[in-house]
Design brief:
This protein is α/β, with parallel strands linked by helices. Helices cover 30% and strands 15% of the residues. The chain has a single domain (5-220), classed as amp nucleosidase, domain 1 (2-Layer Sandwich), CATH 3.30.1730.10. It contains five helices and seven strands, in the order E-E-H-E-E-E-H-E-H-E-H-H.
């Protein structure tokens, strides 16, 4: 059963915007992401202070959407920065501030290689409150501490919807018919960032581009 939209409190959803400048597209991603995280953080603090708000609270990840209508500019020799066939492609985005340079590079290549604009707007993927407040001074209480379940009000991380179906080749189309533009969704990336912070006790902003994982103390030393 779908949630009744009248019982959900969400920030205003702006129209998608078209961009031919990668930098401006990422600026817009940052704006939408900041609005979503700010909204969830503020509503979470109200809920902790005043109690159950009487309805669900939800915000959404921003997304990049690209439509290619012809094979004319499809060069399958490219290793990245292109799509392999005409169609609509989309991906949700998290932490555009952290991935800014990478996103500009990739979007710039897509615009140049296909001669099209990219659409920036909100996706229909809810943002878990845990990821929205990560890195801030706000702490999520353990389940059972509050007199109601946090899941009754906010979206929380869900391993059922956060998996590797795209990169494993199991999921090739979203429900709206668009194809994945990236191998990992925003929520999947948020999980990975949270793991880095959890296991190293360092904020993800301090990490360099490459991370070496090893289980042998000898190599760590």
């Amino acid at each position: 059963m779908q949630d009744d939209p009248h019982t959900i409190l969400s920030p205003d959803a702006p129209e998608q915007e078209s961009f031919t400048s990668a930098a401006r597209a990422v600026d817009r991603l940052e704006e939408l992401y900041s609005q979503a995280t700010g909204f969830l953080s503020a509503e979470f603090q109200k809920t902790v202070t005043k109690g159950h708000p009487g309805r669900r609270v939800r915000a959404f990840y921003p997304e990049i959407r690209l439509t290619v209508t012809s094979f004319d500019k499809v060069d399958t020799r490219l290793a990245f920065g292109h799509v392999s066939a005409p169609g609509t492609y989309a991906t949700t985005v998290t932490r555009p501030d952290l991935f800014r340079n990478y996103l500009i590079q990739q979007i710039e290549l897509l615009i140049r290689n296909h001669g099209v604009s990219v659409e920036i707007g909100l996706s229909d993927t809810p943002m878990p409150v845990h990821f929205a407040v990560s890195g801030s001074t706000v702490a999520i209480p353990q389940e059972g501490v509050m007199d109601f379940s946090l899941r009754d009000v906010f979206d929380v991380p869900d391993l059922v919807t956060t998996n590797d179906d795209i990169v494993n080749g199991v999921m090739t189309r979203y429900d709206d018919g668009s194809a994945p533009l990236a191998p990992f969704t925003a929520q999947r990336v948020d999980y990975s960032l949270a793991r880095l912070s959890h296991y190293t006790a360092n904020d993800t902003t301090h990490f360099q581009n490459h991370v070496l994982f090893t289980k042998y103390q000898f190599y760590v030393d």
